[in-house]
Amino acid sequence: MLGPVILAASRSDRMRRLVSAAPVTKQVVDRFIPGETVDEILPVIDELTGNGLELTMDVVGEDITTPEQATAARDAYLELIGRLGLLELGTRAEMSVKLSMFGQALPGGHDRALANVRPVVEAAAAIGTTVTLDAEDHTTLDSMFAIHDELRKDFPQTGCVIQAYLFRTEEDARRLAANGSRVRLVKGAYKEPAGVAYQQKHEIDKAYVRILRTLMEGDGYPMIGSHDPRLISITQELARTAGRKLDEYEFQMLYGIRGEEHLRLAAEGHRMRVYTAYGTDWYGYFMRRLAEKPANLRFFLRSMVSKG
């Protein structure tokens, strides 16, 4: 399987240099990351919302090694939120944040990440939107869930992400579904050991459906992060069985993948949110997109051959 190899490469400085230097890379990266600055991303937000879509915004960058970088990450989100507020786009775009970007791995990282993310959550609430805490590798999740619980005391709309490939997630889903959280369910995009995660696609898919059923039957707001047509159909059936209306759950897909499906679901009345990343530190995000779906890797390799 190429996925684990690509994920390992996402942590390699040598591979980062090679991929970044390839002449075709920027053209391919632009498929998934449509801008590097707020000024570049605002027209994209305007176009997507004009087509009936909603967004969750991710300022890319995870390899934070200094407190100053963590502070800069906080400020980048605050700048974006401020601009969205001025343009009255706040209700159409939420934020997705990785706590590693806010200093979670630094000394005193848990408290530091909480202190840095709280102003972002406050600013989002002030313009009528919210923040979802992205899930990262399994070693970070206890801290992420604790920060999520703390933020929800003042901002109950704060969301979090759970990953179907982890053994622990079914229990996490039962807890979250019971207390009314906003929960995004994804398959998972990190290289995890066999002791904590399913390794085979069919096992992950089965776990995804079990967890999805728990969320649909619970009291929370499920956010279905998947491009898989089969899982989308299963979601619709489980929602009907649970008696959920179209505005009581939503689909989420990545910018640059299955764009026609985004529009189709929105036209049918579903809430369809596009996960849209921007920024200069794109490498880790880009490599995980290649690892998640063989078609993405084929697209990249074809582009390199045709432009080489």
UniProtKB/TrEMBL annotation:
Domain of life: Bacteria
Name of the top EC class for this enzyme: oxidoreductase
Reactions listed under catalytic activity: L-proline + a quinone = (S)-1-pyrroline-5-carboxylate + a quinol + H(+)
Enzyme Commission numbers on file: 1.5.5.2
Keyword annotations from UniProtKB, A to Z: FAD, Flavoprotein, Nucleotide-binding, Oxidoreductase, Proline metabolism
One Pfam family matching this protein: Pro_dh
Names of required cofactors: FAD
Proline dehydrogenase domain span: 45-299
Pathway(s) this gene product operates in, as recorded in its UniProt entry: Amino-acid degradation; L-proline degradation into L-glutamate; L-glutamate from L-proline: step 1/2
PANTHER family with a match to the protein in the record: PROLINE DEHYDROGENASE 1, MITOCHONDRIAL, PROLINE OXIDASE
Protein known as: proline dehydrogenase
Upper classification of the organism: Bacteria, Bacillati, Actinomycetota, Actinomycetes, Kitasatosporales
